[in-house]
Amino acid sequence: MDYTRRLAEFCTELTFEKIPEDVLHKTKLCVLDYIANVYGSLELEAVNSVAKCIRALGGSDQATALGCGFRTGIQNAAFLNGTTAEAIEAQDGLRFGGNHPVCAVIPAVFAMAEAGRNSGKEVIAGIVAGYEAASRPAAAMHPYHTLSGFLPTGTCGTFGAAAAAAKLMCVDADCMLNAFGNAGYLLPISMAEQLMGGYTVKIVQGGQAASAGIMAAELARAGITGCPQVLEGSELKGGFTQIALRAEPKFDRITEGLGEHFSIMDIYFKPYTCCRHTHGSAQAAMELARENDISPGDVEAIEVDTYGVGVIAVGKGMPANGTFVSAQFSIPYVVAACLMDGKLGPAQLTEKRIADSSLIELSKLVTVRMDDELNRVYPDKTPSRVTIRLKNGRSLVRQVDIPKGDPRDPMDTPQILGKLREFAGTRDKARIEQIAEMVMDLEKLSSLDELASLI
């Protein structure tokens, strides 16, 4: 079956009028959540360093560097806005694909829509198409794409950005197919090594995908052709899944239910600024902290039992001179921060906080283990059990099978709005409410100009 072509044809034919009401509402929540992450990420020094770098490049003023106070070229804006979508690690995600489509898709849509003066309805259709194009290939390769050494937010995200950008250009199916083919050639390697090592360049993967996706679509519009079987490949053995996967892909996931079930409905939201694999532990620790008066000095040991992928991805402790990326991907750090601070937001990722000796010492009391029973129910559930052993002999235990934000235990509109207000910090409250109102009426906007300027 020609999987790439079918996906490209679907993205081309999708219109606002074909989008169900629940998908429309979920798309708006994704945009609200995205804006929250932009604000939260700007609390990090590394993000501001990227912003200074992009600003120094100069260029035209076609699109807004959201939250940064300047305008720049389309690709530079998408790169920076993808970085701010990613950096705080509170971005939305697809459990079945291990990817975060928002980091590539919505930054590409915002930049292209500003420059092209697309309507709110066109923006919504672009986002929905982009999520399909990013998430379905990721699902076909999950979890072996990541285990093969890649980060699908950057790789598969480029297909999503290309589809969204091409959608806003109103191209035909052949041009959309070439955008996919070009994206497969331009997409970043997105080395998992960068994440696992705690290197801060990890934060640009969404921006890199957004920028590359826009270029792929622009080249397609200019008549540049790409492989029409870029996802499945051919007898030449050079297709995306053929070179980026040490296992057999499940191609049916690319087209299964296409047009009937929208992948954006499977998206989870994050209440915490850390890898989703830590969220069961974070939630359990947070609940125990709220229900019990736990002092760090009272703790003898903390045991976290979870599934195998969780142990591999986030089971390690906080290394000496670790970065905020190291912290985001460390169950020991996350649990310690939740117990000490009672929350896990932007403030828990600042350089000062991650260097706090008392917090680091508490994290050293955390042991992470794989539990066979918990591993057996993964990926249907992503369970974690936290046991806190106190010096007085008492033990506190809490297990979370489905962390908050999963579509089965969703974050609703008030909770997403609460996240936006919290991550906005000291920014003008009336302005934040105006932004929220505009997003919830996104289909009524004639352009994104005013919304982008407010952010």
SSE layout and pairings?
Layout: H1 3-13, H2 21-41, H3 45-56, E1 63-65, E2 70-72, H4 74-86, E3 93-94, H5 102-116, H6 120-141, H7 144-147, H8 152-168, H9 173-186, H10 192-196, H11 205-221, H12 240-243, H13 252-255, E4 267-268, H14 279-291, E5 299-306, H15 308-314, H16 324-328, H17 331-341, H18 351-354, H19 357-363, E6 366-370, H20 372-376, E7 384-390, E8 395-400, H21 413-424, H22 429-440, H23 449-454
Features:
455 residues; 2 domains; alpha+beta; 60s Ribosomal Protein L30, Chain: A; single chain; globular; 8 strands
Low-confidence runs of at least 5 consecutive residues: none
What's the alpha carbon Rg, rounded to whole Å? 21 Å
Q: Could you tell me the number of beta strands?
A: 8
- Domain unit count: 2
Which CATH architecture of the largest domain?
A: Orthogonal Bundle
Helix percentage: 40-55%
Distance between the termini: 43 Å
Shape from CA axes? globular
Structural class: alpha+beta
The CATH class designation of the largest domain is Mainly Alpha
At CATH level 3, the topology of the largest domain is 2-methylcitrate dehydratase PrpD
- Work out the strand percent: 5-15%
The count of helical stretches stands at 23
Tell me the name of the CATH homologous superfamily of the largest domain: 2-methylcitrate dehydratase PrpD
Largest sheet: 4 strands, mixed
